[in-house]
Amino acid sequence: MKIAVCLNHVPDTASKISVGQDNQSIDTSGVTFVVNPYDEFAVEEALKTKEKVGGDTVVISLGNDNNKESIKKALAMGVDNAVLLKTNEIYDSLSVAKILANEIKTQNAEIVFFGKQSVDYDNGAVGQMCAELLGYNSVSVVVGLEINGNKVRAEREIEGGREIVETELPVVITTQKGLNEPRYASLKGIMAAKKKIIDEKIPENCSNYTETISMKKPPAKQPGRIIGTDATAVPELIRLLKEEVKVI
Amino acid sequence: MIIKSNPDEIQNYLTDASNYSGKCEAVYIPESEQEIVEIVSRCNADKTKITVAGNGTGLTGGRVPEGGIVLSTEKLNKILEINSNDKYAVVQPSVLLNEFQEEVESRNLFYPPDPTERNCYIGGTVATNASGARTFKYGPTRSYVLGLKIVLPDGRKLRIERGQFIADGSHAIIPTEDGSIISFELPNYEMPATKNAAGYYCKEKMDMIDLFIGSEGTLGIITEIKLKLIDLPKNILSCIIFFNSQEDALDFVEEAVRLSRYTDDSIISARGLELFDKFTLKFLRSDYSNIPENAEAAVWFEQEIDGNEDELISEWMELISKHNGMEEDSWIANDRKEMDKFKDFRHAIALKVNDYMSQRGLKKVGTDVAVPFESFKGFYFDTIKLVCEAGLNYVVYGHAGDSHIHLNMLPDNAEQYNKAIETYRQICSNAVKLKGTVSAEHGIGKLKREYFKLMYNDDVIKKMALIKLAFDTNRILNIGNIFDEKYLT
């Protein structure tokens, strides 16, 4: 059984993001990149699945050499193999899905884990697109998972509740917070990861289906105003809320 | 300047993180050094007591007023300069430590002092000579203070740079900005050779700036601080190792300290070594379900990596395995985010214990004792034995690398509380007998004065009080901190 986990290398949400000079991408200088937080649940679930049903795990990531940092983290956590689909291009969701689906097919993986979304563009689309392209079953936003033989029973978050879905392998699962608690790497894991080889491949050329026209930051928050520090300020506060902010 | 006297508005200034509370007539919030001078001069003239308030994160009631007025420095909150070439910064006292550290780190510089509570004001950390996990390698706040601007209790101003005024033997002379001189004799007493935040720093031929650092606001009001910065270390090895037995964890710490501090040819050189006992882990398990079930203790350590990472990891692995650490279940931070999570792990326990106790309407009784390295292990187990014999629940965590632990007794009722207080006194007394301190980092404030007396006799405390009187003849500033008012007669 081959278990694949797709991993994205994204700006840390704590980083200050600014738009690049081309107005079409972010300025990455000074930005810390990390494993996409939802992908950490995917890695953990892949490892737990391997521990339960056996098989081999492979991490697949699309991007440049910087992605190796995140790949190494997955390897240190215990993933067996790694593939970097090396490119400097920025692809949209469908292109990413096509490239990843090709590799998943090559790997012959029957269980594929994705984070439910990447926190860079937040489209939340790649996992499901991949499933469609591969003809696999797909359950998204999963918070509970059992795999027995060919049977898959997944619990997913829905508006105001939870839904239980039963399906069969091959399957794409997109993971949500709550599914598990990702393990930390051990010192042994770190040392072992250093010996593992990242298989670098050049992905097939793919053209985007969407075009980014421009990016801009939301308007800056206006500074607060202190109207007064005691009860005498209340009438003025009410006037401003009524006339200026128009909320009452 | 803002002046508050409405009871609802001043409520927050009457307490600190220890929950000790007091009273005051009004809270003055000056916006400049000049306004501080005005308030102080007026109070000095009519002998009104002033208690200086930082951000209220202290644990010993230092900022809690017992009458008079509160002077809050909260509006003096600007970073005035960060000099990347000469590696120093100038700040006003109420800059938040965590904001300052983020700011300097964004410039690839580093300010090492790291008390667990990083929402404190830098002024507060200087007043208490605060320390933290990284003190193991980098020393306490004292090591990073290059200069201070101070308003004295009579309104005179003082500017002091490190290296500028050195005591002539035990004779101290400090000129103020108006040309007048403050002179006094430095008492001769032995300070513990451990981390210490109990009483004035005094010794022959000392740099007089050190007297103000850790003086808990009793000598003057800090209005500006010049701090030393160093280069930001880039690569850090940060780990949490679990152990099946406390003895193993303590032995591991002991050897790691020996290798880090006393062995020249070892590449092991931790910058922090912290211990968590089994009860601490039990508290944390609800938030960190990955803590191994059979763990009886854990040790967190960090080391900066300057050379061969593989060799360094191998050395640590060898040490872990020698002391039966649970290697497979150890945690290593892969990135900055995980390092921060490990920091949260340390911070979470203090909050969880406080929540647990306040939900039950109870008060914890927590130690801040440190002893010399060679006595630490014996002291640790004797202390636990004492607490167990008293029939008290407890958690132990803290800066084991610095032989400094926070043992928190968790009494269930008033009777147990009294027992905990009695045990606390015994623990402090035992630490002093071993040439340790009753307060390694929290300070004495108003809550630990009784225990301070275990370290020094009345004669020595009176001599310390004479230093205060040299600066504060009218006895108005932060009265009650470090020593009882009776020593100021």
Task: Give an account of the 3D structure.
The complex is a heterodimer of chains A (248) and B (489). Chain A is α/β, with parallel strands linked by helices and 248 residues long. Helix content of chain A is 29%, strand content 29%. Chain A has a nine-stranded mixed beta sheet, with helices on both faces. In chain A, strands 2-5 form a two-stranded antiparallel sheet. In chain A, strands 3-4 form a two-stranded antiparallel ribbon. In chain A, helix 2 packs across helix 5. With 489 residues, chain B is α+β, with helices and mostly antiparallel strands. Chain B contains 14 helices and 20 strands. Chain B has helices spanning 7-10, 33-45, 97-105, 122-127, 135-138, 209-212, 246-262, 278-284, 309-322, 336-359, 376-389, 414-433, 449-455, 458-471, and strands spanning 2-4, 26-29, 50-53, 69-72, 79-83, 88-91, 109-110, 145-151, 157-161, 171-175, 181-185, 221-228, 230-231, 236-243, 272-277, 297-304, 331-332, 365-366, 394-399, 404-409. Chain B is globular and about 65 Å long. The two termini of chain B are 33 Å apart. The model of chain B has no long low-confidence stretch (mean pLDDT 94). At the A-B interface, helix 2 and helix 5 of A face helix 9, strand 17 and helix 10 of B.
Write the layout of secondary structure elements.
The complex is a heterodimer of chains A (248) and B (489).
Chain A: E1 2-6, E2 9-11, E3 18-19, E4 26-27, E5 33-35, H1 37-53, E6 56-63, H2 67-77, E7 81-86, H3 93-107, E8 111-115, H4 126-134, E9 137-148, E10 151-158, E11 161-168, E12 171-175, H5 187-195, E13 198-201, H6 234-244
Helix pairs in contact in A: 2-5, 3-4
Chain B: E1 2-4, H1 7-10, E2 26-29, H2 33-45, E3 50-53, E4 69-72, E5 79-83, E6 88-91, H3 97-105, E7 109-110, H4 122-127, H5 135-138, E8 145-151, E9 157-161, E10 171-175, E11 181-185, H6 209-212, E12 221-228, E13 230-231, E14 236-243, H7 246-262, E15 272-277, H8 278-284, E16 297-304, H9 309-322, E17 331-332, H10 336-359, E18 365-366, H11 376-389, E19 394-399, E20 404-409, H12 414-433, H13 449-455, H14 458-471
Parallel strand pairs in B: 2-4, 3-4
Antiparallel strand pairs in B: 1-2, 5-6, 6-12, 7-13, 8-9, 8-12, 10-11, 14-16, 14-17, 15-16, 15-19, 18-20, 19-20
Helix pairs in contact in B: 11-12
